[in-house]
Specification:
Order of helices and strands: HEHEEEHHHHHHHHH
Largest sheet: 4 strands, mixed
Helix content: 40-55%
Shape: globular
Number of domains: 1
CATH architecture: Orthogonal Bundle
Distance between the termini: 53 Å
Number of strands: 4
Strand content: 5-15%
Radius of gyration: 21 Å
Strand order of the largest sheet: 1-2-4-3
Structural class: mainly alpha
CATH class: Mainly Alpha
Length: about 280
C-alpha cells in the first residue's frame, strides 16, 4: 500500500507546482446598453475573451471595465486607481456578434501590453487585433454549437461564423496575392495609417490560418512591445526585436509570421554561425 500512497503524494506535489491561469474579471458598467440584460453582455464578452486568454501568458490582469461610448471601440491608455483597464464599445442591444468582434480586438491590445511610444509599426498591432476578432468569432461559433453561455443560444453559433466569414469575403486580397508583395507595396502607407480597417483586415485574413493552426501564438503577443520606444524603427527591426524578446518555444512562431512579410526574424550572427560550424 505504500507505493500507491507515495505515487499519489508525488502527483499532489507536482500539481501544486502548476500555476493556474487567473480568471478574467470583466465588468460591464452603465445602463445605456439598450434592450439587453447586462449579465448577458458579460457572458458574451467573457466568451470572446476566453478564446484568446486560454492561450495567453498566465499573468494576472486587473479588472476590465467595459462601457458604451460612440468613441469606441477602444481601450484607453489611462488606467483606473487600481490599474483597471477601461474599454469602450460602440454597440448595444443584443448584437452579440458586434460585442464579440469589438471586444476581442481590444483584448488583443491588452495581450500586446499596449503602450505609448513610436507608432511606426502600430498598424501591425492593429492588424493582430483584427486577427483576434476573427479568431474569436470563429472559435465561439464552434464552442457555442454545444456549450454556449446559455443553452438556448446554440443556434446563434451560425451567426457568429457568418459574421466572421462575411468580413473575410469582403476584405480578402485577390487570389494569388502574396502577403510579402502586398506589404512591400503598402509599407510606406502603413507607417502613417495604422487604423485603415480595410487594409488591417486584408492582412489579418492572411495571418488568421496561422493563428488557428498554432493558437499558442497568442502567447507571443505578450512580448511584441518590449522594444517599443520613442525612436522609430523599421518593420524588419521591429519583428526581429519581437523575436529576440520572445521565449525560445515561441521564436518559431514569430519567425513564421515574419516570413509571411518576406522578413527573416532570426539573423544569424557571425558568432552563432561559427558555433554552428564547429
Amino acid at each position: 500500500m505504500r507505493k500507491p500512497l507515495q505515487a499519489f503524494t508525488a502527483i499532489l506535489l507536482l500539481c501544486g507546482n502548476i500555476t493556474a491561469k487567473p480568471p478574467l474579471d470583466i465588468r460591464v458598467v452603465g445602463t445605456n446598453w439598450g434592450e439587453v440584460n447586462v449579465s448577458n453582455i458579460e457572458a458574451v464578452l467573457n466568451s470572446a475573451a476566453e478564446t484568446l486568454w486560454q492561450h495567453a501568458e498566465p499573468e494576472a490582469l486587473r479588472p476590465i471595465l467595459v462601457m458604451r461610448s460612440k468613441e469606441g471601440p477602444i481601450v484607453l491608455f489611462k488606467r483606473g486607481p487600481r490599474g483597471e483597464f477601461f474599454v469602450k464599445l460602440n454597440t448595444s442591444d443584443r448584437y452579440w456578434c458586434q460585442y464579440a468582434f469589438q471586444f476581442a480586438h481590444e483584448i488583443g491590445h491588452i495581450l500586446c501590453r499596449y503602450k505609448d511610444g513610436d507608432s511606426t509599426n502600430k498598424w501591425f498591432e492593429e492588424t493582430l487585433c483584427e486577427t483576434a476578432s476573427l479568431y474569436a468569432l470563429r472559435s465561439m461559433a464552434k464552442t457555442w454549437k454545444t456549450s454556449p453561455p446559455y443553452q438556448n443560444w446554440t443556434s446563434y453559433s451560425e451567426h457568429l461564423n457568418n459574421y466572421a466569414n462575411d468580413r473575410i469575403e469582403r476584405f480578402s486580397l485577390p487570389d494569388g496575392t502574396h502577403l510579402a508583395n502586398y506589404y512591400a507595396e503598402n509599407a510606406r502607407y502603413f507607417k502613417n495609417h495604422a487604423h485603415d480597417r480595410n487594409k488591417n483586415a486584408a492582412v489579418a485574413i492572411k495571418l488568421l490560418p496561422i493563428f488557428e493552426a498554432y493558437p499558442e501564438g497568442w502567447r507571443a503577443l505578450h512580448y511584441i512591445n518590449e522594444s517599443v520606444w520613442d525612436e522609430a524603427q523599421d518593420f524588419s527591426t521591429y519583428l526581429r526585436n519581437w523575436y529576440e524578446h520572445s521565449p525560445k518555444d515561441l521564436k518559431p512562431f514569430v519567425e513564421k509570421l515574419a516570413e509571411q512579410f518576406g522578413i527573416r526574424a532570426h539573423i544569424q550572427t557571425s558568432s552563432t554561425a561559427q558555433a554552428s560550424r564547429s
